[in-house]
């Protein structure tokens, strides 16, 4: 996957999001990698929790919880898109269970399945 990905911001977090495969394709597992840092200090957020979820134009849904990885401040989630096209994707994330969830939305183009 490409290391570039995209950057999004919430009130308190800066997130770098990449997918494998990149670009994401239909009908196979797409791994979302999310690296979360504190927007003010730049420190990685270690013990956070959250999820990535997506809805197609036809109303199909996919989601997964973010799981921490060995990399500091990095999490992964595995989504399966049943159709190609534009999906509305969102991430919810919080520093810990006492904090409020912060959400950011974007559109993601899912490409036809690889032959």
What does this structure look like?
The protein has strands at 6-9, 13-20, 29-38, 49-56, 61-65, 67-68, 74-80, 85-94, 102-110. It is mainly beta. The mean pLDDT is 95. The protein has a five-stranded antiparallel β-sheet with strand order 1-2-3-7-6, with no helix packed on it. The chain has a four-stranded antiparallel β-sheet with strand order 5-4-8-9, with no helix packed on it. 0% of the residues lie in helices and 55% in strands. The protein is globular and about 45 Å long.
Helicity, in percent?
A: under 10%
Biggest sheet character = 5 strands, antiparallel
Strand order of the largest sheet: 1-2-3-7-6
Structural class: mainly beta
Number of strands: 9
Strand content: over 45%
Principal-axis shape equals globular
Order of helices and strands: EEEEEEEEE
Low-confidence stretches: none
| Discrete helix count | 0
How far apart the termini lie comes to: 18 Å
Rg, rounded, reads: 14 Å
Quick synopsis:
The protein has 115 residues and is mainly beta.
SSE map:
Layout: E1 6-9, E2 13-20, E3 29-38, E4 49-56, E5 61-65, E6 67-68, E7 74-80, E8 85-94, E9 102-110
Antiparallel strand pairs: 1-2, 2-3, 3-7, 4-5, 4-8, 6-7, 8-9
Short descriptors:
single chain; 115 residues; mainly beta; 5-stranded antiparallel sheet; 9 strands; 55% strand; globular
């Amino acid at each position: 996957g490409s290391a570039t990905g995209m950057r999004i911001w919430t009130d308190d977090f800066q997130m770098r999001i990449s997918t494998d495969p990149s670009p994401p394709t239909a009908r196979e597992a797409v791994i979302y990698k999310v690296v979360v840092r504190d927007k003010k200090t730049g420190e990685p957020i270690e013990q956070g929790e959250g999820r990535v979820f997506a809805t197609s134009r036809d109303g199909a849904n996919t989601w997964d919880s973010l799981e921490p990885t060995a990399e500091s401040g990095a999490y992964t989630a595995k989504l399966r898109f049943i159709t190609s096209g534009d999906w509305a994707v969102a991430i919810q994330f919080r520093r810990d269970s006492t904090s409020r969830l912060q959400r950011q939305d974007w559109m993601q183009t899912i490409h036809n399945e690889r032959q």
